[in-house]
Structure formats: C-alpha cells, structure tokens
Specification:
alpha+beta; three-stranded antiparallel β-sheet; two-stranded antiparallel ribbon
Length: about 170
Amino acid sequence: MKLNNLLQAIKGIDIYGVHVGVNFKNQEIHKTYFGAFISAIILIFILLQCYFSVYDLLNKKNPQVITNQQYIRNPERMVFDNVQQVIMMGFTTISSQYIYDPSIVQASATLSSIRPCSMNDIKVQKLESFFNKLPLSNLFCFDDNQQIYVEGDYSGDFYSRVDVYFNQ
C-alpha cells in the first residue's frame, strides 16, 4: 500500500500527462512513470540553473552587462564658460608639488590664450575654499575674454577642438 502511494506521488509530478477526452481509470489526465522521470530531470536542471545564476549574481562573478551606444554624427557644441566650470592645467612633481617656471615650460592653445591662474578665475562660490589651498599662480588657465568650446565629431560636418601645447 505504501509503495502504491509512493508510485502515485511519483506519477503526480508528471507535467507532460496527456488529457484524455474520456476518463481513463477515473482520471482526466493519464500520467506515467516515464513522464514523471522527464519532469523531475527538467525540474532539477531548472533549479540548478537558478541556483548557479543567483550564486554568480551574489558573488559578482561573470557579470554580463548589456550596453547600447547611440551614435550622434554632430554632437552639440559644448561651451566652457568661466562661471560654471573651472579649468586649470599644470605639472606636478612626484611629491605632488606644482611646477611653474616660465623659463622651463611655456603653454599655448588654439582658439585662446593661456595665462597663470588667479582667484579671479574661480567663479563658483562653493569651490573657493578648495582652490584657496592650491598655488594658483603655478597653474595655467584660459583667458577670460575668449569663448572656449568643443563641437562635433572628427568625421562629422561640424568639428572644433581646443589643442593645448606645453613646450620646454
């Protein structure tokens, strides 16, 4: 009797049972041991796949990232205004000391002139405390009187860039 109940339980997991239009052995679905075996194997594979996927996800192994990049032939002009953005350039030693010696390094740029920076170049109030700690006279800034911008793509219809040159 217990064996018969166990066999009925095994047949119960058969997800491929065939619906019979007429009742067969007082059952609407005819389930078999073979169908139960195949159903159990598929269920085991699904559970193993779920386990390993969750394991990889939680342990950050084998990340798969889907990215999509939309090509823009002529990106919009990006204007560097001296009110919202602060652009400073310079050289440092290995010990992070800024170097500025006009007899050693000269700076020049296309579309603009470059000069030593000062506190007048910092127009963002929240950043003044940070820039107060830097030796601004050792850094290079763009001249305030000229508009600096980059635009487009090299292979596009419109293209502009700013080249900065440092010469010895």
